[in-house]
Known about the structure:
This protein has 300 residues and is of the alpha/beta class. It has a single domain (4-145, 211-255, 268-291), classed as Spore Coat Polysaccharide Biosynthesis Protein SpsA, Chain A (Alpha-Beta Complex). Helices cover 28% and strands 26% of the residues. It is built from eight helices and 13 strands. The chain has helices at residues 12-15, 32-42, 57-68, 100-105, 126-138, 220-235, 246-255, 279-291, and strands at 4-8, 47-52, 74-78, 115-119, 122-123, 145-152, 163-170, 176-188, 191-195, 201-203, 209-217, 260-266, 271-272. The strands form two sheets. Strands 1, 2, 3, 4, 6, 7, 8, 9, 10, 11 and 12 form an eleven-stranded mixed sheet that branches. A two-stranded antiparallel sheet has the order 5-13. A hairpin with a 5-residue loop joins strand 9 and strand 10. The radius of gyration is 19 Å and the shape is globular.
Amino acid sequence: MKPTLFVLAAGMGSRYGGLKQLDGLGPSGETIMDYSIYDAVNAGFGKLVFVIRESFEHDFREKIVKKYEQKIPVELVFQELDALPEGFTPHPERVKPWGTNHAVMMGKEVIHEPFAVINADDFYGRESFAILGDYLESMADSESRYCMVGYRVGNTLSESGTVARGVCETDEEAYLTGVVERTQVMRVEGKVSYKDENDRWVAIDDHTPVSMNMWGFTPDYFRYSDDYFVQFLRENADNIKAEFFIPLLVNHLIVEGTASVKVLDTPSHWFGVTYAEDRPSVVARLKKLADEGNYPSPLW
């Protein structure tokens, strides 16, 4: 059973000012997402699922889905503000959907096999998809045994400023014991460092694993998501900015001993457009990858 690639793209329309400006960064106008899907197809993924906002379904089918449906089966699912369990309604002042794990929950009707979750606008690298695809195939008959690709923090930084990173804590067998969100990470005097609660810079090893939202789950994850989302909503009924993030549920499952998460090391360099100033360097990196023969140009 081939794994599925689940792409979180519901924030794309708002962030990019509409799909018309979905940024062509590659040498032949490729988007970052094109590279992820190319790598996933080559790594043996068998289906593609996008979660989007229903309001841009037409544009998305025209500009995005048409590119891929000749190469791999494609499904669309929708993340909306009112996609809530029975008995709950959104706060009248709330404008944003409920975060990354809520987006994942939208896939439960169409995903019945091990699946990877990625962001639409992050470059993850060929090795990461190969490593994750292999591990997902080994998860086919299991439950409560998940994985995530842990990037070496030194391979994920921006030259334009600080970044937020989920710094992973692991045991001696590389199983995740927790994710601590560090909102300011950058090189300080040559060393990767984060700013702690006391406003001090704390140096960490370049190889420290961080989460870049590249996860591997089996379909039972949807059941845990449904159950914990009810608890989350009860606790956050009046918080119009509360978001149901993947690490929130993952941490909960680990702490209560329900699930394990293997952290898979990757040599890949992550990059993306965190700041507008990052764009030229991303364009240059994609061109270099094509020039060195790592990717064809055009990609498809």
